[in-house]
Each structure stands twice: as structure tokens, then as C-alpha cells.
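User: My instructor asked us to take a sequence, write out its structure as C-alpha cells, and then describe one feature of it. I'm not sure where to start. Here is the sequence I was given:
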Amino acid sequence: MKKILILGAGNAQIDAIKYCREAGYEVGGCSYTNTDHGIPMLDWFEQVDIRSVEGVTDLARRHEVDAIYSVGSDLAMPTVMKASENLGLPHYIPSKTADICHSKHLLREALGEDFDGNVHFLVADTQEDAMRWNCFPAMMKPVDSQGQRGCFRVNQPSDIEAHFEVSRDYSIIGKVIIEDFIEGPEVSVNGFMQDGKMAFGLVSDRFAFDEYPGGIIKKHRVPSHFADEAGKAAVLDLTERIAATIGLNNGPLYAQIKLDRGVHPVVLEIAPRLDGCHMWRLIRNYCGVDLLDASIRQLTEAVELPEPEPADTDCELVFISEPTGSTVDYSKYDFSSADYVEWYYKDGDTVQKLNGYIEKCGYVIQRAEKPE
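Assistant: Let's start with the prediction itself. The C-alpha cells for your sequence are:
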């Protein structure tokens, strides 16, 4: 029986845990906390911080695992690659590439100011340094956080002053990045790389809550209507050029991209992993390609992705979102026509704080009306 160590056991990793259990793996896990929802599904668990390369390496060695992996977590990917390198286990990319993807400033620097699809940016570890930024509007973010935590649109210098400390507090290394604000719709790319080529790539539309800062996700839609056919080709070309530049040659990738004034693609971030929004399930529902299956299996065997067979209707993944501190009430919703529903909470639970505004309580996959 193959043994796999999954880093993290929260909502994003539960998909991978379930998949590996159903595929016959012995599944272990670790997390900095012992309260993650996925822990009861594991064969074994130890409370080890997923950012600790030494701790994860020791855990994987003691349990003699065949692979280390994670989905949906930026924090986990550098550790996955470094611990796998330490133990000679299969992995998709060099740890240096994982570090570049994890840290927003390293990605911007690796691409360079002249890279078509990059933006002007400033990295600051003090408010004084941040106040040197003079092009508004802009986005201010922690360089190495995840889940839209600590992200603010800044329209004037006083906004930097007001939000700098909060944004920096979400950074592991205590730095923020300020970068040009791109006016236009946002799309995502869910792709799969094999030997430097994109074996699969799908452009989807990303909808965020307008009333909350930081681009908190509301829903995803496939196929994209924000980009026309030429726009989709440009988005996929940008994604492949970034992957080639930073050495993201194998495995899954997830890119967030904005269409500047609705036309020119500009990268927000790229990750060497499946996204944290269960897009693999939406994509499988829409066109029959299972990126979760490919991501796990290709660690140890050759995988040939099937030819996509898109549905004749649009599909969307909509998050069931409620305010922090509210009570989950299943009776408020009617999902009788949905293709799939999954709750993160039990009926009657209190919604816990993550971003502090509106929290994901579950999600639904359903057919969508085509926009006019």
C-alpha cells in the first residue's frame, strides 16, 4: 500500500484526503493545529507546522511515506518540494520555483519589469518605505500570505498609512508589496504541465465581492465570458511564458490574471498547485478532465489527460458565504437543482473568523445561465 503525507487538513485538503483514501493509499497528515476538519479522515496525524521543512522531513522519514503533497495551500508548497528533495521523493518542481510562486515579490522580480504581463511594484518592510509609492490606485498585500488576507486597495497615501500595519502583520517575513491596480475583469487558469508544455489549460471567470476589500471570492464560472477566444489564447500564452520563465515545468498550476481594460492579460499570482476553491470538481463536471486525479497519480506514474468534452451549458461554483460569527442555517438555501453541494459546517455551527468579513461555509456546483 502506498503511503502519502498530506500537509494541512483543512477544507482545501479534504478533497485530496478523500481521493487518496478511495484510491487505497495510507493517508497521513500534519498541521499547526489539531482542529482541522479533515483530521478524522486521516489514518494518522501529528501536530507539525506545515512551514517546518525539518519537522515535515522528519515526519515523512519516520512514516516511510512514498510521497508528500498538498492542494490549495501556498504555505505548503515550498515545504512539499524541499522535504521531497531532502528524502529523494517524487515532486514536480524545484523548491526554488515553489519559493518564487509563494512570495509575490519574488515572482515579480523573477519575471522582471520588462516582462509582458508583469506590473510595476514596490516592496516595503516599513511604512516609510511604503510611502514612496506614488501611483494610485494600487493594491497593497502581504508578500507571502494567502486567502486574500491583508489585501487592500489603496487610492491615496493616507490609505497606505491606514492599512500598512495590518497588511504587514499577515506576512511571515514582515513585508508588503504595493503594485499597480489593474482595472478590468479577473480570470483564472487551471492548468496541468507535462515536460514544460501545458497539457491542459482552462480559462474561467472569477467573481469577487465588491463590498469587501482584498478580492474575496464569490464564485467561479466556466467557460470564461470575460475573455473572447483571442483573449483566452493570450491568457494561456501568458501562463505558459511565466511557467517557462520560473521553471514550473510539471504538475498542476493555478494562475490569477486580470484583463487590463478588458483586453491585455496581467498576472496577479501563479501557484504550482490546484487552487483552494475545488475548481478541479467544477472542471470535471464541465469537461470530464480530473485534475485532482492527475495531480496525485502523476507523482508516481505516467498520466495521459483525456481530451476535454465541454458541456453545452455554462457551469459555476458558488460559495455559500456568511458573515463572521453568524449561525449556519441550512434551511435558508434550496440546492435541489444543484449538481453538487458540500458544507464546511454543520447546521447550527458558528461561522469562524478567517478574513473577518464574509466566510466560506461551503459551496455548490450548478448549471449557469449564459450572460447576454
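For the description part of your assignment, you could build on this observation: The chain has three domains: 3-91, 120-180, 186-368. Try explaining in your own words what that tells you about the chain.
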